[in-house]
Amino acid sequence: MEFDLSLLLNGIVSGLLLGGLYAAAASGLAVSFGMLDIVNIAHPALMVTGAFTVVVLGTWLGLDPLVVAVLQAPLFYVFGIGIYNAYHHFFEKRGDEALQGLAFFFGVMFIIEVGLVMAFGPEQRFLDPSYAYTTWRIGDIDLPLRMLVPGLFAMACIGGLFLYLHRSFTGLAIAAVAQDAEALRLMAIDPVRIKRLAFGISIALASMAGGALVVVQPVEPSSGQVFIGRVFAICIMGGMASLPGCIMAALLFGVVENVTATFFGPSWSPAVAFGWLLLVLAFRPQGLFGKAA
Amino acid sequence: MNANLRFWLGAAALGLALVAGLRLLGNDYGYFAGYFVLQYVVLAGAWNILGGYAGYVNFGAAGFMAAGAYSAIVVRQWLGWDLIPGIFAAAVVAGLLGLGTGYLTLRLKGVYFSIATLCLAVVLQTLVVNWDYVGGSRGAYIIHARDIPPFNSYSEMLFIVMLALAIITTGIGRAVEMSRLGRGLQAIRDNERAAEAVGVPTLRLKLVATTLCGALMGVAGAPLPYYSGYLNPEAAFSLAYAVNAIAMPLIGGAGTWAGPVIGAVLLASLQQAATVTISSALNLWIVGWMLVIFVAVAPRGILGWFRKRT
């Protein structure tokens, strides 16, 4: 195959745009898995749930998917708090996180996925926003709004989260709970309350990522499966708890995956996720940008 | 030694009684349902070796099982070998897969291994879908001979093969539990650092366990294409295997050789009975709920009710 520069450039640019979506999907995990040490493997499934509710509510209300995603986020926040309460009560308090806790989240993931199949059927659902078929062109490079808008939306969400974590008191408390929960207790802050709040936020982020997902591609109940590899690979590559690291890793990941898809065919792209994950785990478990533990 | 002998004699007697009972019943459906239950005994027993004793969660049961099933298909298409060599090939392929995944991730915290196995299933599915030799996404057919001389019927043969595999797996699980390997794995589960400190070769033991676990899961899948006559990636990588492989040992009582057998017989029979009456999605949904409720309320499973807390 002849090397084609504009093909490569387009591959990189749309990879960056795709990376924006991945960053949204992984940022919630950076909070739950990275900061709280809760291995929420149901995160992608919750994202897909968010995508489905966006489709349902958006069709019903006639609103843009991203607007719906923001409007429904508080519901998912509450839902996340419910999940954390159950997790804390049955596993964290007993010290059973490792085996039983993992099995619990696996069960939750499974219940969600099968529940979606039962509620909506296995077929794909979509909700096209008004700009879905508009493409901006800069020279040889295509910028489809279908990819650009969710990418920017994702960056806005992560930016908001970053500000919240670094500027507000509770945000700083979340960062503190990630470092030392016991020290927080000494300062008369209940670490469980902070963790509950943070987990709720991570699930709200998952649902907003679901809104972005609907704009990019149609969703089906099993869409979450491919994302498990992606989001965990990104989260680990980004150095677990670091949001800037998460964005960098997501963009890099999007580019690699998209360039692979451009040159070898899209059916191979899930293999990229796993290959990366294994390589990262084997050689740089502290992440690409993280410091050695 | 005496107890070992008693276990094997008891298992053999139980197996013979099952075959005799099904022969008396004389219904092919009996073998069909029996195979369904027994494949889960193998799968749950395999999961238990790593998950139950060492506390390392393998989410990739569907991936390992499909690796076994497709190894059997490849061996048949490529060399023309039949079921039994296919089972050995499945054990080797899936065992190596387990060893490789373990080697790359087991030096880290256990969750990384779990995440890797979760992705492994997705990627193996990608490979199989893209691999035309085994039928790609269209699936592969296995044509089988109708009647095999020593057995009454083809389904009886498959049932007996699976019965033997289930007994062997349970025996291996029991042998692991009694051996130094099992005690080492239990030490890892209780406190890996302490185990390492007193000289338990943790990495080596974990690798042995992942290999064994992968190989047995592959073995559980090898007869699958013969059983269903046709195999596509969707069926081979069904999430049902992944969730059942975890739910059954945990519900029965993980970390004991009898736990997975109890869980598998209970849950698989329930599902087999339920598919006749309710939809398969609802069926799996119930398994998911049972898993969540059991790990929350009865983390030691059904066997835990009968044993006093330690």
**Span between termini of chain A:** 44 Å
Give unreliable regions of chain B as ranges.
Answer: none
Biggest sheet: strand arrangement of chain A: 1-2
Tell the overall outline of chain A. Answer: globular
Q: State the end-to-end distance of chain B.
A: 27 Å
User: What composes the largest sheet of chain B?
Assistant: 2 strands, antiparallel
Strand content of chain A: under 5%
Helix content of chain A: over 70%
Q: Which secondary-structure class do the elements of chain A indicate?
A: mainly alpha
Radius of gyration of chain A, CA atoms, in whole angstroms: 19 Å
Count of helix runs of chain B: 15
Tell me, briefly, the overall form of chain B.
Answer: globular
Task: Give the SSE string of chain A.
Answer: HHHHEEHHHHHHH
Q: Rg of chain B from C-alpha positions?
A: 19 Å
Report the largest inter-chain contact.
Answer: A-B, 42 and 45 residues
Break the fold down into its secondary structure elements and pairings.
The complex is a heterodimer of chains A (293) and B (310).
Chain A: H1 5-35, H2 43-61, H3 65-92, H4 97-120, E1 135-138, E2 141-144, H5 145-167, H6 169-179, H7 181-186, H8 191-216, H9 223-237, H10 243-264, H11 269-283
Helix pairs in contact in A: 1-5, 1-8, 1-9, 1-10, 2-3, 2-4, 2-8, 2-9, 3-4, 3-8, 5-6, 5-8, 6-8, 9-10, 9-11, 10-11
Chain B: H1 2-25, H2 28-54, H3 61-79, H4 83-105, H5 110-129, E1 140-141, H6 154-178, H7 180-190, H8 192-197, H9 202-221, H10 224-228, E2 230-231, H11 233-236, H12 239-252, H13 258-277, H14 280-297, H15 301-306
Antiparallel strand pairs in B: 1-2
